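It is worth pausing here to work through a concrete case rather than discussing structure prediction in the abstract. The textbook approach is simple: state the sequence, then state the predicted structure, then interpret. We follow exactly that order.
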Amino acid sequence: SLSIVRAAKTADAAEERFFQKLELEVEKVGKFTQRVVAELRQRLSNLQPKADKAAAAEGRTEDKERLMEDAKLIGEDYLQLEKYANLNYMGVHKILKKHDKLLPHSPCRQFYIAHLHQQPWVQGTYSDVLVHLSNVYSQLRGDQTGQKNEDAAQGFVRSTTKYWVRAEDVSHVKYHVLQHLPVFQFDKSDFAGDAQLINSVYFDNENLELYHGRLDKKPNAIALRIRWYGPGEPQKVFVERKTHRESWKGEESVKERITLDEDKVVPFLEMEYSLEQAVADLRAAGKSEKEIDAFSALFTEVRQQLDSKQLRPFIRTQYMRTAFQIPFDSTVRISMDTNMCMIKENPDEGPSCTLAGRWYRDPSLPINRNEITRFPHAVLEVKLSLGQGQESPAWVQE
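Step two, the predicted structure:
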C-alpha cells in the first residue's frame, strides 16, 4: 500500500508540474499578445493625426499613398498576431488532447479549455484595432457619408451574394474589405469591438411553407422576421419582410420593414394593435403622411399574411455582425456574420411562445442541446444597390 501511495503522489506531482508548465506557456502567449497589441494601438495613434492632416488639407497623392503603406503594414502585423494566437490556441488543444489520451483516468481537456477561453488573447478583445485601422483608411480614401434614413417604413431593392468563410480566414477577409469600405457602426454603444449582436425571430407555420418557398426560390416567396440589435432585452424592433423576385425576368428582390416598440409586438401579432392606433402613434411622433402611407401598407399586408398563413414564431438566428459600408450609403454593403447559431423559438419543455403570450423565447428558460445548432463557418454577404447602368466596383468583382 505504501508503494501505491508513493506512486499516486509521484503522479500528482508530475501532473502539477505539467499544469504549471502549461500555465506558464499560456501566460507567455498572453503577455506577448498584450505587448504587440499595445504597440499596434500606439502606431495607429501616431498615424491618426497624420491621416487627419492629409485628409483636411487634401494633401498630395504621394503623401496619402505613403500613409496608406503605413496603414497596410499595421494591418499585416495585426494578421500575423492573430495567426500567432490561433496557432498557440491549436497547440494547447493538441497538448490537452494528447494528455487525456495518455492519462484517461485523469482527463483535463474540458476543464482547461473553459479556463483557456477566459484568456484575453483567446477572446480576441483587440478588434478595436481593426475599427481604428478602418477609420484611418476611410479618411485617406476621402469617404463621403450618406444621409441617414429614419422613415417609419423602409424598403431596399438589392442583389445579394453569400459566401462561407472558414473561421481561420475571418480576419484576413475583414482586413481585405476594410481597405475599400469602412467598418460601419450604427450605434457604437451596442458594439463589441468591430461587431454587433443581432437576433432575428423567423415566423412560419407547421408546414414550413415560408421556409420551403424560399428554399425553392418560388416567385414572390416571402420571409417574415422580427429583428433587434444589441445585447439584452429588445426595446425597439424591426418587422421585416423579404420578397424573392426572379432575376432572369429583370426583377430584383426586395426587403421592407417597419419599426415597432417592443410592447406593441404581441398586440400587433394578436390583431389587437389596430392600424388606426399605429397611425395615431406615428402622427404623434411627427412622421410625414408619405411615411405613414408606406407604413400602413406594409403593416396591413404583413398582418394579412400572418393571419392567412397562420404564422407564429418558429426559429431564431443569432450572430455577431461586422458591417462594412460608407455610413448611410447602401450602394455597396458587405457584412460578415460570426458565431452564428440557430435556436428553436418554442422550447421542447414548456409552453410555446403563443401560449405564453410572448413573441420570442423566454430568456429565463434553459436551452437544451437539441434546441440549438451552431454553424461552424462565418457568412460573408455582398449586397449591391446599383442604379440603372451602374456597375459594381472592380474590387468587388474580383
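Step three, interpretation. DSSP finds eleven helices and eleven strands in the chain. The two ends are 72 Å apart (CA to CA).
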